Amino acid sequence: MIEFQNVGKTYRQQVVALQDVNIKINKGEFVFLVGPSGAGKSTFIKLLLHEEKATSGKIMMNDEDITKVSNRRIPLLRRSIGVIFQDFRLLPNKTVYENIAFAMEIVEAKTKDIRRQVPAVLGLVGLSDKAKKYPNELSGGEMQRVSIARSIINNPSIVIADEPTGNLDPDTAWDIMRVLRNINERGTTVIMATHAKDIVNVMEQRVIAIEKGSVIRDDKKGVYGYED
Amino acid sequence: MKIKTMGYMIKQGFIGLWRNRGMSFASIASVTASLLVLGMIIILVLNMNNIAEMGQSQFDNIQVYLEDELENEQISNIGAELENIQGVSYVEYESQDDALEKMKESWGEQGYLLETLENNPLPDSYVVYFQELEASQAVVRNIERITGVDEVRYYQDVIDNLVNIADFVQLAGLILIGILGLIAMFIISNTIKLTLNARRQEISIMKYVGATNWFIRWPFVVEGIFLGFFGSLIALVVVYFGYEYVYNLVYARFYALFAEYIVSAEAMLQQITVMFIVIGIGVGILGSLISMRKHLKV
Known about the structure:
heterodimer; A: six-stranded mixed β-sheet; B: alpha+beta; Alpha-Beta Plaits; 2 domains; 9 helices; 4 strands
């Protein structure tokens, strides 16, 4: 569960990126985050990822106020969050398998667990036959599926996707949405920032719209609501 | 830390080393160069101190050489006069024959060379023992006034000079080493910076997945440790064999005569091994910490 209580974020005491945000996201929800570029979506995500600290208010995550967490504990908190980027961010010199295993290695997982879990997750995203390929041998959709596999390999309770379909053609984008939906149905909270009008409108999920640093809309079964 | 993780850190350290071979080589060379200079200074200072120390231990007595062809009576008079000087504990007579015998002994195997001498060139002498070292200079002045005394063998000023020079060399050396160490550190931090840049994307992913700060930092520290360690190993090998070569050269030229004044290569190695490795690794760690402070935000 995630709860923002009167959260504000100001950069260098002048630029107001977010103000007075009050939001509650329950476990297992699927949430779209929409709004024009520069409206505050990125800041919202950065706060969730502990990349930035809120300048006011409280952010509760799994019953803990993460605005008060010490720097030392931040890495541990990040382990409960998976993250997916528009540009995939795969390591080019590692195979698909290694890219995913890497995420387990750096949290010091057991070799035995790595050998068991990586193939399972590859199966989940439909890439079992690509394990030995390098990123440059994959299509955009495949690369994004690798990055999704990497984001869920450590069993996070929340997955944050920052425009995951931004670089993909519509058909491939829908493939990715099916994978994310699949992950969500297994109980993982998914928060997805997007500009993909069709996807938001067809999926009929909760939509939170942010404009000029404030939440202007929060609908249970919302629509995109912008003319691109 | 798990053993597997340690293996990962060491492997990453080596990869970093290999990826920037050129800079790694430069880093190792700079550590080696600094430590070589340190080695030379240590050799100098060790030997100077050694000579000074050996001189000093021989200095609770002085040798008073007498003029040639004195009568036995004059010799014993001088002996009595010496004993009467304030500060003198007792005196021992050493005839020129005794002196030659002693010299033969100290030359050891080469002693037979002295048997070819037709005339004994050594003078008769008295060995004067002091009650206390501090009064030695006054005593020496009094001895020099006695008629029949040719020369007083008195090392104090030489020893003082030697100690002064050794102190100076040590100080100048430390300053030089400080500068060289800083240069080595700078080169290492630049080498690590290259690895940091090469791994930037990897590090950003590591952060998102929740790698701890030290998990991210360790490979760079390990790389610094390797750079410093290899540098110090090479320096140790060069200093040891270089010094041994010179030592053998001196030993062969001057027989055993000087040998006791010179520190052996093994004794020198004992003194510097730990020091070199600690300094090398220390410089390496500092270099990588500086680099991370400047270029790695975790």
